[in-house]
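Students often ask why inverse folding is considered easier than folding. One informal answer: many sequences map to the same fold, so there is more than one right answer. In these notes we will look at a single instance of the problem. The structure comes first.
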């Protein structure tokens, strides 16, 4: 085992016996096999699109599109720990690949899928392998150390990893879009498969891998825009909304993860059942969507970020549904009332299928005690400062910035984790001037929105000092806001009084960072430490081009940010 895809990897080098996340070496090997299988499928998807007899709407190609997203999503940090489920994804990918390969060859195509350019991935065929052989394949051919040795160029492989982990995040976000709209986007899927094809190459192409990584960022911007639009079209335009963060008396279900559509179906099925529904973690922004908050039994938000779930889930008096990442190996005290969905997998945990039948969850909630009374005093947090809500206020922001009433705008947020040094983001936010504005999103916002020194703070013009823009994918709203402010102020995004301090952990965050870099945004502080897969030479390249850096002393960093550095 050698896994270093997340920021919390062991000793900031790699997990080699068991993942810090809890992933076993067996599951890790199977996930490595699955990633090679997806790359192989992608080569045939590229070949299929180059074959005149195969239409872009071909059902086998669409099957490959959906499977690419879902199978990739299953390999993200804190998503799927079930070897059985990973094996099932491998078998599905291999089956669909065989279907597609047959059609491509029948249409006279497939010459591009060759071992000279793509190595063993081009010829791999795992259809007849046993579960043990699939695991062995991952250890022998697909592992990080094996692929690095095959490329024999640390810097090229570093850029390959950057692109790989960013693409994982893209596929996860694109899977969310698919969950909302029920189909894939041909342009986006073409790009995803072409990026995968480049990543499959063992040739140490530094310039090619760098361009590929930046393309990941560009495609992610398209995907985030599609997800933002799908949410708004399906659930209504999000609006600033106060959310109850204390419990109310009654039976209860908790929903964690990211998927808003799953929550909608649960709310429909719990109507009139005497059960209240609470959000957790990245589901907090659900309360800003009109179609969701119209359900009176969506009563509030319970808990904070994913890393606290072992304590928060244990104290919640009802069943818990985890729709997507992040999930941890559960404690015994709540494992029998934990349910997974979609790509999420844990052995011994009940899984809700694609029919979204929540009957078992609802019945269990009705049998449990729930909250015995209201928690007083009631507390609230306001979320929903999507770009659609903030842009009408842009005039106020620009006027305040130009008059000196607004000293600076800080984007502080992203993907949270459990290390002690993530307190950097809390300290930085607390030290920002009283006349500055903080934009935050993702689970890392929990380090800011619950801070008593920032709760309820306002600027002189009445705007809240902290604007909760939503989920990690709502980084798109920050991008739109920054772009529109730059247009209005007749300057570039880098010339705005705007500084970025981004917390990262897993691969969705990697995709967002690549989106920022693909836009040319400079002076980003990325932490609490830089990814283990970035070599010194690649880091120097990113520093020279984007001035990307890790965090330092919060007070010193703040002073530099105030000077636009």
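Output (designed amino acids):
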């Amino acid at each position: 085992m050698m896994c270093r895809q997340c920021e919390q990897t062991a000793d900031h080098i790699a997990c080699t016996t068991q993942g810090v996340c809890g992933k076993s070496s067996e599951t890790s090997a199977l996930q490595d096999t699955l990633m090679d299988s997806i790359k192989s499928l992608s080569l045939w998807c590229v070949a299929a699109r180059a074959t005149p007899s195969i239409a872009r709407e071909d059902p086998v190609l669409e099957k490959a599109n959906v499977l690419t997203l879902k199978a990739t999503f299953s390999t993200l940090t804190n998503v799927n720990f079930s070897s059985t489920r990973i094996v099932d994804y491998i078998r599905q990918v291999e089956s669909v690949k065989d279907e597609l390969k047959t059609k491509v060859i029948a249409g006279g195509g497939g010459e591009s899928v060759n071992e000279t350019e793509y190595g063993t991935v081009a010829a791999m065929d795992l259809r007849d392998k046993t579960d043990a052989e699939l695991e062995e394949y991952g250890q022998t051919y697909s592992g990080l150390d094996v692929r690095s040795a095959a490329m024999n160029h640390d810097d090229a492989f570093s850029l390959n990893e950057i692109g790989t982990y960013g693409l994982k995040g893209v596929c996860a976000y694109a899977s969310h879009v698919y969950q909302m709209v029920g189909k894939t986007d041909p342009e986006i899927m073409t790009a995803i498969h072409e990026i995968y094809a480049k990543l499959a190459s063992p040739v140490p192409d530094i310039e090619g891998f760098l361009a590929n990584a930046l393309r990941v960022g560009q495609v992610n911007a398209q995907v985030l825009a599609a997800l933002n639009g799908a949410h708004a079209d399906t659930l209504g335009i999000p609006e600033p909304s106060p959310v109850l963060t204390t419990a109310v008396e009654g039976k209860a279900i908790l929903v964690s993860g990211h998927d808003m559509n799953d929550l909608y179906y649960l709310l429909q099925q719990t109507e009139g059942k005497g059960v209240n529904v609470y959000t957790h973690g990245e589901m907090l922004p659900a309360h800003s969507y009109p179609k969701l908050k119209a359900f009176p039994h969506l009563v509030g938000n319970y808990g904070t970020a994913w890393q606290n779930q072992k304590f928060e889930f244990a104290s919640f008096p009802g069943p818990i549904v985890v729709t997507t990442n992040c999930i941890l190996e559960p404690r015994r005290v709540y494992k029998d009332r934990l349910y997974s969905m979609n790509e999420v997998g844990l052995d011994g945990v009940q899984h809700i299928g694609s029919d979204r039948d929540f009957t078992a969850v609802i019945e269990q909630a009705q049998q449990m005690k729930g909250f015995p009374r209201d928690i007083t005093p009631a507390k609230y947090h306001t979320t929903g400062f999507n770009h659609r809500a903030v842009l009408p206020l842009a005039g106020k922001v620009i006027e305040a910035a130009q008059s000196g009433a607004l000293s600076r705008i800080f984007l502080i947020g992203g993907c949270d984790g459990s290390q002690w040094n993530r307190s950097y983001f809390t300290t930085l936010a607390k030290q920002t001037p009283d006349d500055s504005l903080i934009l935050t999103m993702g689970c890392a916002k929990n380090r800011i929105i619950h801070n008593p020194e920032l709760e309820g703070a306002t600027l002189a013009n009445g705007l809240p000092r902290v604007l909760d823009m939503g989920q990690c994918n709502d980084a798109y709203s920050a991008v739109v806001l920054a772009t529109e402010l730059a247009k209005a102020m007749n300057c570039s995004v880098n010339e705005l009084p705007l500084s970025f301090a981004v917390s990262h952990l897993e691969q969705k965050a990697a995709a967002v960072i690549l989106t920022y870099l693909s836009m040319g945004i400079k002076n980003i502080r990325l932490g609490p430490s830089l990814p283990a897969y970035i070599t010194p030479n690649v880091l120097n390249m990113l520093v020279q081009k984007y001035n990307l850096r890790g965090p330092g002393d919060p007070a010193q960093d703040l002073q530099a940010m105030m000077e636009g550095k």
